[in-house]
Amino acid sequence: MDKMESLYKDNGENAVNFSLLLPRASYITHAFTCFINKMGRNVELDVKVKETNSMETINSIVECEYNMGIIRYPVAYESFFMSMIEEKNLKYHNVWEFDYVLITSENSQLAKEKEINETVLDKYIEVLHGDNIVPNISAAYQKKNAEMNNHSRHVYVYERGSQFDILSACPDSFMWVSPLPKEILKRYGLVQRKCPNFKKTNKDVLIYQSNYRLSHADQMFLDELERVRKEISE
User: Fold this and answer.
1) Could you give the C-alpha distances from 83 to 80, 179, 183, in angstroms and in order?
2) Which residue in 2, 143, 147, 184 has its CB near the most CB atoms, within 10 A?
3) In this structure, are residues 87 and 61 in contact, taking their beta carbons and an 8 Å threshold?
């Protein structure tokens, strides 16, 4: 009943009901803040946003706890996630397919390296998100993913605030992330480097219940997300 009532509330001109699950992706949160800033001061807001991993996002969308979710996975895992989305009878739209970039402090020697390879990275500390576990993935996929994160020096974090604190204050640290907006790089004193020696292609995909109708607010956010994505890609 609460869910049905909230859907009707969104029909009002001065009321916005919005909920989103997302990966720890700064370009998405940047688009979200731009979206919120476009809301008028007289608009009633009922907004719920949570950063989490792809498996929790899928489960929460299936349970109707959130209206929309964005999942992230390596392209090698696509068949697994597409099968799950089909099995759960969810709709999906591709948001972005991208190669991870390396970010580090602008004061780091790593930012000045002409060429970044495994030998160079062995001197530094890799920051990783600690809950991106995907159950039921084949042993071959797990082995391939492990090879991408085989550094002996690493720090696991569980939210973006910690990762930026570490990256900004610890010049010996680095992280693989989706490309960041220039505004966020400047805010935290970071630089990002494309690394041809490391091919880490990922996909961000929007999912929602097959019987859910995207609201005007949902579409506003998605338009803002596409604008930010294009701005970064230019």
Assistant:
1) 5, 27, 37
2) 184
3) no
- Pairing of β 101-105 and β 190-193: antiparallel
pLDDT of residue 18 exceeding 90, the answer is yes
Distance of CA 95 to the CA centre of its chain: 11
Which residues does residue 182 pair with via DSSP β-bridges, in sequence order? none
3-state class (DSSP) for residue 104: strand
Residue with tokens 């640290």: 173
Residue range 2-97+202-233, CATH number: 3.40.190.10
Which residue in the block uniquely carries the two structure tokens 């956010």? 221
Question: In what side-by-side order are the strands of the sheet with 154-157?
Answer: 154-157, 125-129, 173-177, 101-105, 190-193
Return the domain boundaries, the chain: 2-97+202-233, 101-199
Share of the chain above pLDDT 90, in %: 72
pLDDT in tens, 27-42: 999 999 999 999 888 8
* Radius of gyration (C-alpha) of the chain in whole angstroms: 19
**Which residues, in sequence order, are CB contacts of 227 under 8 Å at separation 6+?**
31, 34
- Residue identified by tokens 């605030």 is 161
Amino acid letter for position 212: Y
Write down the CATH superfamily of domain 101-199. Osmoprotection protein (prox); domain 2 (3.40.190.120)
Would you say the C-alpha torsion 34, 202, 174, 55 has a positive or negative sign?
A: positive
* Tokens standing for residue 102: 């390396």
Read off φ and ψ for residue 193, nearest 5 degrees.
Answer: -125, 135
Q: Is the pTM of this model over 0.90?
A: no
pLDDT surpassing 70 at residue 150? no
| β-sheet with 44-51: strand ranges across | 44-51, 15-22, 68-74, 201-209, 90-99
